[in-house]
Amino acid sequence: MPSKYRKKLKRAALEQIKIVEAVLRRWDPIGIAPDHDPADEYDTYAPHIAAKIVAGTTVQDLAAHLKHLRTVTIGMYENDAADAKFASELIEALAPPDASQD
Asked: 19: closest CA among 57, 50, 58, 56?
């Protein structure tokens, strides 16, 4: 694989991760956003979530993943509505542009 192509793929992946990080900061299951930047808390989840979305995960599967992060990993109460809302937003944010709109 040519070096230019690898660099382009890496840039694209990093851009996707940044988008996911921004959404996760608003998801904020701990509720710390108004008081401090939750970047440390959620950014580690972004690469895996971006990879799941690129691989074609469904909103339901991603919402279940967010629920697991919220309840098991972080240890907070369930909020299925928020997890579903942000799962949908994450998938939409990384969706490829619609070629039919060109």
From this structure: 50
User: Angle at the Cα of 50 (from 44 to 53), degrees rounded to 5?
Assistant: 145
Q: Which sign does the torsion angle of CA 42, 47, 51, 54 carry? A: positive
Tokens of 21: 């990080």
60: Cβ–Cβ under 8 A, 6 or more apart, which residues? 84, 87
pLDDT tens figures, 40-82: 678 999 999 999 999 999 999 999 999 999 999 999 999 999 9
Residue 75 in domain: yes
Residues of the domain holding 52: 3-27+37-95
pTM of the predicted model, to two decimals? Answer: 0.85
- Number of independent structural domains in the chain: 1
